[in-house]
Write a structure and sequence with these properties.
heterodimer, A: alpha/beta, nine-stranded mixed β-sheet, 11 strands, globular, B: mainly beta, five-stranded antiparallel β-sheet
Chain lengths: 383, 155
């Protein structure tokens, strides 16, 4: 039986398209310092460090080694975790396992990326199989475009429906001081933005960002001593599929469907739309804000546009999505899933800058290149 | 000291590291049949009976070895696609890849999974999931998936 685990502190950088003013470990240290300040702890209070990014974006390998001065891992147990787009949620789930095992009482977990240091698309292409996929593959955006297209055509979804998702997240980002893109856009702006990979236009997708995020996890006793309102991690799920891109079901995201089924079952959630209070969805593009919320069981397949147009997922709606502005506003890839986890934790702790009132249950998700799906459910009371 | 206050210095690398990969047992057989005879081979799982292309040794969901080879048609159905119009660096060459181009997932007749490949049509009005397409083979074939030039629409 796993021990109870909570998130008790969060720190992040002010995310930007380019952070030439700092190198990797200086940027990592900004997030670590803020997380320690947030939890009112010192590095001496930390038992172990977990860190991750996607090496091929910076082409400087072994961040677990070279970042040690910035991470605070000097002479502590340090482990690196990297799983592509899901790196951040893999970090978050790995930290949960570290503390739930009873071996560590406090864990510092760090996700970061300096996407400005290379060509993001070129680097992403190197994750594809060199024989079967690489010659035709064009990176994350066209990959998402193929699944958007299959979904659009099957359920008669329009580009305008998807644009409404971008409008929501970009509006939420305006009041998040850490977000990268903090300017509101309209449905027309999205529809008129340049086509980059049909049916995806520039404003349908996330930016590439430099930034870092750090969270502090604690065991039950420590969390109760150190935090007035910890964010308790109730359960997590991980689902992976495919060897090659051609193996994927492009109409349904079955990995997310399966992960959702598992966490709802474990957390005793019967009606997610009613029972969840806030969701930080790893949603790197607008169409994901439709198709993927159907996979989460919030409405029948093809019906997500109705929820989104009705404002159900806006701040003030029945189930607000991405109060932080989400991935469409900020995407420092190795940090992105950890930002979802940390922003969801802040909502439970009641101290987000874009606070949803009375959050008792929050969800954070991760998404990655292999159509991998991770989910974490957090609550205001230990369970 | 005023050093380092006005600017942060950067360095760049354009170094290319050459790589060499193995297609493996099953991949080599698949590519050879295309090179020699312009024929697609799939592999059938003895447990779930799914026919995989490209062929691979193990059926992941059943986690069992596969050894029943199946000949597939040169025609198939386009299930999903995108028309790529933005410029990016191709890590295989270090050069920008020519755009626009269309790539998609083609379910060859007789297969249960799809193959990633190019479609020689860039007009979104002329493409839809369910479109029938046919492989067009290269004259000079060297033993890679690019021995198929692209797939064309069957009119």
């Amino acid at each position: 039986m796993a021990n109870r685990v909570a998130v008790i502190g969060m720190g992040q950088t002010h995310h930007r398209s380019r952070r030439d003013d700092v190198n990797g470990y200086e940027m990592i240290n900004e997030a670590v310092t803020r997380a320690l300040e947030d939890a009112e702890m010192s590095i001496d209070d930390i038992d172990a460090v977990i860190i991750g990014n996607m090496d091929h974006f910076e082409s400087v390998n072994y961040v677990d080694c070279w970042s040690i001065n910035g991470s605070g891992g000097y002479l502590k147990p340090v482990i690196k975790v990297t799983t592509g787009g899901t790196t951040g949620t893999s970090l978050a789930i790995s930290a949960f396992h570290h503390v739930a095992s009873g071996i560590f009482d406090t864990v510092l977990v760090i996700g970061w990326e300096k996407n400005s240091e290379s060509d993001t698309t070129g680097a992403i292409i190197t994750c594809s199989d060199p024989f079967w996929d690489r010659f035709s593959y064009a990176g994350a955006i066209p990959s998402l475009a193929t699944e958007a297209l299959a979904y659009m055509k099957k359920y008669d979804i329009s580009e305008k429906d998807a644009a409404r998702v971008t409008v929501r997240d970009r509006r939420h980002a305006v009041s998040n001081p850490y977000a990268h893109l903090r300017k509101e856009v309209t449905v027309e702006d999205v529809l008129e933005s340049p086509m980059i990979s049909y049916p995806i236009k520039l404003l349908d997708v996330c930016p590439r960002t430099d930034g870092a995020c750090a969270l502090i996890y604690a065991s039950e006793n420590k969390a109760k001593k150190l935090s007035p309102r910890p964010a308790w991690i109730w359960t997590t799920a991980v689902r992976h599929m495919f060897s090659y891109f051609g193996d994927i079901n492009y109409i349904r995201i079955t990995s997310l469907e399966e992960a959702a089924r598992e966490v709802y079952d474990k957390a005793g959630i019967k009606e997610p739309l009613k029972e969840l209070d806030v969701v930080e969805l790893y949603q790197p593009y607008s169409f994901g804000g439709l198709k993927w919320i159907e996979a989460l069981g919030l409405c029948p397949a093809g019906k997500a546009p109705e929820l989104v147009w009705d404002g159900v997922t806006d701040m003030g709606g029945e189930l607000p999505f991405n109060p932080s502005g989400g991935v469409i506003a900020t995407n420092c890839i190795g940090a992105t899933g950890l930002l979802r986890t940390g922003e969801a934790a802040l909502q439970v702790m009641g101290r987000s800058t874009n606070q949803v009132p009375d959050v008792d249950i929050a969800m954070a998700t991760g998404f990655g290149g292999a159509y991998w799906s991770d989910i974490l459910i957090m609550g205001s009371s230990p369970r | 000291m005023e050093y380092g206050k006005k600017e942060r210095l950067t360095i760049s690398s354009l170094e290319q590291i050459p790589y060499r990969w193995s297609a493996g047992k099953y991949g080599s057989k698949f590519l050879e049949s295309i090179r020699q005879d312009k024929k697609f081979l799939g592999i059938k799982c003895p447990s779930c009976e799914k026919v995989y292309v490209p062929p691979r040794e193990i059926c992941g969901p059943c986690f069992c070895k596969m050894d029943q080879w199946v000949e597939l048609g040169n025609e198939g159905t386009l299930l999903a696609y995108s028309i790529v119009s933005y410029r990016f660096i191709d890590p295989n060459t270090g050069e920008p890849r020519p755009v626009p181009y269309t790539y998609g997932y083609i379910e060859l007749d007789g297969a249960s999974t799809t193959l990633s490949h190019f479609i020689n049509e860039h007009d979104s009005e002329k493409l839809y999931p369910g479109l029938r397409v046919r492989a067009v083979f290269a004259e000079e074939r060297t033993g890679s998936l690019e021995d198929i030039k692209h797939f064309e629409i069957i009119s």
